[in-house]
Specification:
heterodimer; A: MetI-like fold; 10 helices; about 80% helix; about 0% strand; B: about 250 residues; alpha/beta; Rossmann fold; six-stranded mixed sheet; about 40% helix; globular
Chain lengths: ~270, ~250
């Protein structure tokens, strides 16, 4: 149990290595922009982007809150609705056979193509944005959870049947716990998709004013050739995507770390 | 106790035999001879295509859930990986909605029987294969079953662990006055454990002989070394081989 040598070293380098790459890339970027005298409306330097981010923080953070609000609401709805649909699918092969193709249809149709329709049909813009993001984010939850609910150990299923377990007991005590690792796998993908869905829908909706999200800021900055602000908004979207992903990984680890192979720390 | 199976399954030709109360009966035979099928029929996990299953002379179905205390130990430990060992052992009681306090007491007693009291709070993945199998046996015993069905429970374990668990199983069988139907393809294990061995053959699965093992209990390592032991093994080995060639010709 040389935890410092076995565990501490890789953990440190796991953060240090990519951070070093980032520093290197940013450094080269900064030097190139300064050396070649690239105008800020083409490629702003990292330092300028940082200064813009600080200067425009009120505007950008407000927009970030709007976009994140849409993405998180959509993620929450996707989790609840997706899990319920998966339970329905597992309950009856008939329902799954009839409905699953449409879930796939929804998944493969580009959201940019359906977003204008949704925005026309749904009066409230925010609701329309949430619906768009749900359409994108729900599929991995449905498909992964369905797969997980069906993947209960056949031996355990036999055991439950031998003890005359009810359908409800089999579901709650066997199928749901067995599905958790799959569900969390789906959640990781869905968290990123919810953000992408929200941003794409905002682009299509193009709503400004009070409830303007980050996508609108990017759109507007592009038109105004305020490229440093565009980059700053982009940075915020990326960072919140990473944060969202990190959050789902953390929750998954919290729930599964004790028993599931995917999350068990290899220290023992 | 009485069971009759004129079961006309493809996997199993009509078979007819009786398990006596307090018996340690072993179904012995090569792979594909329908041992597991027969056991699953007894556990009512599958339905016979034809014929009946009797329980103390009654129709099997007529006795219902309450009168029929059955437990089964599978080839793998089949423990829930997310639940502690004590929760795993408590499962049959939980599924029957047994009162919590009594259940806890029964679980502690069952874990004590198999020597796993210290592992109650651990997760299955923290235990060795042999310990997981013991937990599986504790789970089977927790309901004080009238009939314990065991489907090659120690097949995946190493020889040393297997012998030790065989010894412990016999001690439990004697102490709890269990009725056991045990499935194995190991002749040595069958002779060591059983009061009676039912030899089966494949294609179609059928019973070829029933051999009583008259050796007195308790049986220990000394029994494994006695000439009578190896004679029985050779006798059974010939029976199994004859049955196989009988099919081929």
């Amino acid at each position: 149990m040389t935890s410092a040598g076995d565990n501490g070293q890789p953990r440190l380098s796991r953060f240090a290595a990519p951070a070093l790459v980032a520093l290197l890339v940013l450094g080269v970027w900064q030097v190139l922009v300064m050396a070649c005298d690239v105008p800020a409306y083409l490629v702003p330097s990292p330092l300028l982007i940082l200064r813009t981010l600080i200067a425009d923080r009120t505007l950008l953070l407000e927009s970030l809150a709007v976009t994140l609000g849409v993405a998180l609401t959509a993620l929450g709805i996707s989790i609840v609705l997706g899990a319920l649909i998966a339970l329905l699918f597992v309950r009856s092969r008939w329902i799954e056979m009839s409905l699953f193709p449409y879930a796939v249809l929804l998944q493969v149709t580009p959201i940019v193509a359906i977003a204008p329709l949704i925005i026309i049909w749904v009066k409230d813009t925010r609701t329309a944005l949430v619906i768009c993001a749900v359409v994108v984010a729900i599929f991995p939850i449905i498909s992964n959870t369905t797969l997980g609910l069906r993947s209960a150990d056949p031996g355990l299923l036999n055991l439950f049947r031998m003890y005359r377990a009810t359908r409800w007991q089999i579901l709650m005590r066997l199928r749901v716990p067995s599905a958790l690792p799959y569900f969390f796998g789906g959640l990781r993908i869905a968290s990123g998709l919810a953000l992408i869905g929200a941003v794409v829908a905002e682009f299509v909706a193009g709503t400004g004013g009070q409830g303007a999200g980050l996508a609108y800021q990017i759109l507007l900055s592009g038109i105004q050739l305020n490229i440093p602000r565009l980059f700053a908004a982009l940075l915020l979207i990326t960072l919140s995507g990473v944060a969202l992903f990190g959050l789902t990984v953390w929750i998954s680890r919290l729930v599964l770390s004790r028993w599931h192979e995917s999350e068990v720390t290899p220290s023992d | 106790m009485r069971k009759t199976y004129p079961a006309g399954r493809q996997a199993l030709a009509p078979v007819d035999f009786t398990v006596r109360r307090g018996e340690f009966l072993t179904l012995l035979g090569p792979s594909g001879c329908g041992k597991t099928t027969l056991l699953n029929l007894m556990a009512a996990l599958i339905e016979p295509s034809a014929g009946t299953l009797r329980w103390w002379g009654d129709g099997f179905a007529a006795t219902g859930g309450a009168g029929r205390r059955l437990a089964m130990v599978f080839q793998s430990p089949t423990l829930m990986p997310w639940a502690r060992i004590d929760a795993n052992v408590r499962l049959p009681l939980d599924l029957a909605s047994a009162p919590r306090a009594g259940a806890e007491r029964d679980v502690a007693a069952a874990l004590d029987l198999v020597g796993l009291s210290d592992a109650a709070a651990q997760l299955p993945r923290e235990l060795s294969g042999g310990m997981q199998m013991r937990a599986s046996i504790a789970r089977a015993l927790v309901t004080s079953p009238d009939l314990l069905l065991m489907d090659e429970p120690f097949g995946a374990l190493d020889e040393f662990t297997r012998q030790r668990l065989d010894d412990e199983l016999l001690a439990l069988w004697a102490a709890r006055k269990l009725t056991v139907v045990f499935v194995t393809h190991s002749i040595v294990e069958a002779v060591f454990l059983s009061t009676r061995i039912v030899v089966m053959a494949a294609r179609p699965g059928r019973i070829v002989a029933a051999v009583p093992i008259e050796e007195p209990y308790p049986r220990s390592d000394a029994f494994r070394l006695r000439p009578a032991f190896s004679e029985q093994c050779q006798h059974l080995s010939r029976l199994v081989a004859d049955a196989a060639t009988g099919v081929a010709s």
